[in-house]
Amino acid sequence: MDAMYDAAITPATPRALATEAVHAGREDLAALGLHAVPLDLSTTYPSYDARAEAARIDEFATTGAQPEGPPIYARLDNPTTARFETALARLEGTQSAVAFASGMAALTAVLLVRASMGLRHVVAVRPLYGCSDHLLTAGLLGTEVTWTDAAGIGDAIRPDTGLVMVETPANPTLAEVDIRAVAHACGSVPLLVDSTFATPVLQRPVEHGAQIVLHSATKYLGGHGDVLAGVVACDEEFAGKLRQVRFATGGVLHPLAGYLLLRGLSTLPVRMRAASTSAAELARRLSVDPRIARVHYPEIGGAMVAFEVYGDPHDVIAAVRLITPAVSLGSVDTLIQHPASISHRIVDEGDRRSAGVSDRLLRMSVGLEDVEDLWRDLTEALSARPGRRAAGNGVRERHSAGR
């Protein structure tokens, strides 16, 4: 999808988020004689003008801008994926968005761009998703991280700080930070907000001063547990650098995933609001349940609930029947997992606990089932005797994988 196309389909007047979710990235379909979005699976595209191709490739190498005209090669651009990027940028209120093969590929690209400018230092607030924490802490990309709380961000910034990173609501405690206050503390250093749990339905970080918004699109943006993807929403200048990294490293999003994500966006507002209503009700019931020590639920709402049990959390995981014990989140069905065993296992135990990720914490991604059915399954699991397992729900410990 080239720049000329994007300019032509940008609406003249602002539209509601629910309308954008349905129509963004699709405005040209009627003129093409189509209703459903076309899926372009080509890896390469014919061209009989090598000089023109050379000029377009030179332009991309210089600016990272999407080449005008027909696509050249799938690692550089894909029309179906570009439609998703256009739609997501409009939902987040940014100039551009760049999609990747996973959320971690997206974060890696951001870090590589900043490191290429000699800005390898990152200031970050825990908790983050376990693999994000690990990527920063392990220095796998040559980055150095200073961990702090939101109040300490300003003091932690150095001349070589290239990025401040927060996740709000945070994985898995659902802790929230004041994005506007954090953005002010960052000064000229870009603020990256991982907004995976919130989605554009609940918050748009750029409206509060963030420059970069990260999503594990595998979660709510896809919404059905059948696509792996990541996306960064940002201004066009930074997007150009991200495209260059994506082209060089190969972390491209498959066009089928782009197709599924665009379809997922069309129902995102409806899914988020329905799941959030059930999640809020479950959080309310859990908060007065004598078997529960503490409930975590964000002030902005959402479909995620975390709670700490007095009993053994592994017994709860083993006993659910309707709810699926699995990593990840944001699907139409309800999932539950034990962060200390799975999503945050790779984080040092002391760092986990200091960030509020206790060994008794369970994290639940509420889906679209009837809330009474979910509560019945959950309350029976909370009362289950040790060793009681639902058929096929064997539990095994593993390192961090999905969120």
Automatic annotation (TrEMBL):
Keywords: Pyridoxal phosphate, Transferase. InterPro entries: Cys/Met-Metab_PyrdxlP-dep_enz, Cys_met_metab_PP, PyrdxlP-dep_Trfase, PyrdxlP-dep_Trfase_major, PyrdxlP-dep_Trfase_small. It comes from the Bacteria. One of its GO terms (molecular function) is transferase activity. Its cofactor is pyridoxal 5'-phosphate. SUPFAM superfamilies: PLP-dependent transferases (SSF53383). PANTHER family: CYSTATHIONINE GAMMA-LYASE-RELATED, TRANS-SULFURATION ENZYME FAMILY MEMBER. Belongs to the trans-sulfuration enzymes family. This is PLP-dependent transferase.
